[in-house]
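Course assignment 3, question 2. Fill in each field.
Student: A.L.
Task: Predict the tertiary structure for the chain below.
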Amino acid sequence: MRSGLRQRGEPGHDNQTEIISTSGSIPSEWPKPRAMSSTRPHLPKTSKPDTQKPATTAGPKIPEPPAQAQAQGRGVEQWVVNADYAGQRIDNFLLSRLQGVPKTRIYKMLRTGEVRVNGGRVSSDYRIEADDRLRIPPVRVMPAGEPDARHQAWGQASPAMAKSMSEKIQVLFEDELVLAINKPFGFAVHGGSGVRLGVIEALRQSRFGVNTIAAREGTNRIESGFLELVHRLDRETSGVMLIAKRRSALTEFHRQLRDGEMRKRYLALVWGGWPIGLDRIEAPLHKWVNAKGERWVRVQDGGQMAITKIQVLQRITHPVMGEVSFLRCEPLTGRTHQLRVHLAHAGCPIIGDPKYGRYAHDAMFGQQHSDPDCRWVTRMFLHAWQLRCRHPKGLERLDFRADLDSIFLQGLHQLRMDAPE
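Answer field:
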């Protein structure tokens, strides 16, 4: 089996909004077409809506969390799709909008026809279109919880939690199409298993509110703006992250990712002396799930090929901590946990990596060390430092850079290393 490590010289070397709910009468029963379809159901013609201005209703109140978390129900809702979301698969659309609802429940709703589009059934790969009307059945979600030390919680997030989290996110660049941020370590990019407030949810709530009612002719609409992740960072990783503010921008950024036109550079502190001459790693990565349901990645034949370029910035031998290397890494592919697994596979795991690291060594220089000056391993030392792409509209080059946080700089200081210019 090839190790996948290649030495130098070796060959090959505006403000459009998305309507997410409406109030008003909901039909007690919907027509039941015989077959499921991935094409747009026919929307029957309706009479002209009553021009009388509807009575406004107060915005929904955020319930107080119970002493013991119990699922709370939501009634039948009717959504209308905004043009910014046209072209997105309905399963992905629902997964991003029904936070707190299990993934299996969402797919069951689609499979059994509980979710209707324009009165008809659709399959999970149906791509929604502007002005599609979605019927969402009653669902049960987890209630809001108390924020944890990193301002994330199980259950639906409160506005105060979203505000607290968004205030810690530095904006590097923003215009009508693009938002570039410096994500702090410890923040999940989106809600998921055990986390119901991620970066994207916090930004949506802090910018657009939980539920913003906009009365229009014949309807009361609850709307939210468009913000979608272009790519992801692990919860333990800090640094540059792109967010699209329009569907067109998201599509263009994804094209750049597929075609290799978006470049990313990371900074990593690793245990061990990086092998001299090793500037490129090519090793296939295989994803697997352990008995606890945790997702892991390992180097294995038959996996997806992954390629990483490495440049050594500094290499030292510390009298107490041993050999440590400071690396600049550029992933040429975008596999899950690629840098973390490739560096560990080369014998130099990232300092503070809770999955693939040297746990005993990390703990030795963590919070339990007898010398306060040696308690510096309090995060994973991987940082998304630079990102280069092209603007989705004018295609001019954009270069983003996120500065290192105080904990990363403290680690460099303890090792007597210099921060990159």
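Instructor remarks: Residues 296 and 355 are 8 Å apart (CA to CA). The radius of gyration is 24 Å.
Grade: pending
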